[in-house]
Amino acid sequence: MKKIIVTGCNGQLGRAINKELAGNAELEFVNTDVGELDITNIDKVMALAREVKPYAIINCAAHTAVDACETDVDNAYRINAIGPRNLSIAATETGAKMIHVSTDYVFDGKGTRPYLEFDTPNPQGIYGASKLVGENMVKDFADRYFILRTAWLYGDGKNFAKTMLRLSETHDKVRVVNDQFGSPTSTKELAAAIAQLLFTENYGLFHATCEGSCHWAEFAQEIFRLAGKATQVEGISTAEYGAAAPRPAYSILENYMLKLTGGYQFADWHDAIEEYIKTL
Length: 280
Ligand SMILES: NC(=O)c1ccc[n+]([C@@H]2O[C@H](COP(=O)([O-])OP(=O)(O)OC[C@H]3O[C@@H](n4cnc5c(N)ncnc54)[C@H](OP(=O)(O)O)[C@@H]3O)[C@@H](O)[C@H]2O)c1
What we know:
Radius of gyration: 18 Å
Number of strands: 12
Number of helices: 11
Strand order of the largest sheet: 2-1-3-4-5-10
Structural class: alpha/beta
Helix content: 40-55%
CATH architecture: 3-Layer(aba) Sandwich
Largest sheet: 6 strands, parallel
CATH class: Alpha Beta
Bound molecules: NADP nicotinamide-adenine-dinucleotide phosphate
């Protein structure tokens, strides 16, 4: 029996990982969220890892509130950087594989073609900066790791698609930014990619997003179309929207490492969101 410690199990990705791997009788899950295992606490992380002796640790915990990170700086670094450091130290000591998830927001968005894993990050906000330190902590402290950079996630939890559908109940028109480009990605697709890597030695840093790209207003339009909503989308600029944290204008990732190594082929974002809307 292979034991898997999942952190942040109540989040979108934590739930999707459990669903994706539920049918695998070889696996036993030790599911934890902040109540059972606060990943910022090295002593608790080490104690659990020593007790469980996991095959792998899948870190789904993060401080994902991008705007809040700008003012909640210490917690952002604690959760997004020290947390993965602690888990990586525990993984190395117990011989476990370390699976960590990062973000397209490590890039500054000034690129003109999809970012490769070999491009140099340059985060613009605290969330992206803290996630980049987290990546480096994993590289420094884990012997055998998979880092998957993903983007614009939606699944079982709070996300953009659900916000749009909620707004459509009370609004005939919504204003959505149309000058930030990225790749909406379902947690189901990301969990499938993780499940495929998990039993391999294909270690390293991977971009892991659905194929294709759009801007947020286009994504909103597609959500309304698929859900049969008449709500109109008015495109506005990032400056007009005025969020607290800077966001990359262009953060399309090429899943280059997965392609080079014969790894998981992500669905096109249109197909993934269509499947998701049907499940709601
Ligand atoms: N969401 C996106 O659009 C997006 C985009 C790119 C990359 N990512 C990355 O993808 C990963 C999964 O994101 P997600 O959307 O599934 O996140 P999520 O839904 O926000 O879930 C994160 C989980 O971690 C928990 N958590 C927070 N602090 C913790 C701590 N100190 N110890 C243990 N658990 C803690 C949270 O609990 P509380 O809810 O109680 O805080 C929550 O259950 C993250 O690494 C994220 O950075 C996400």
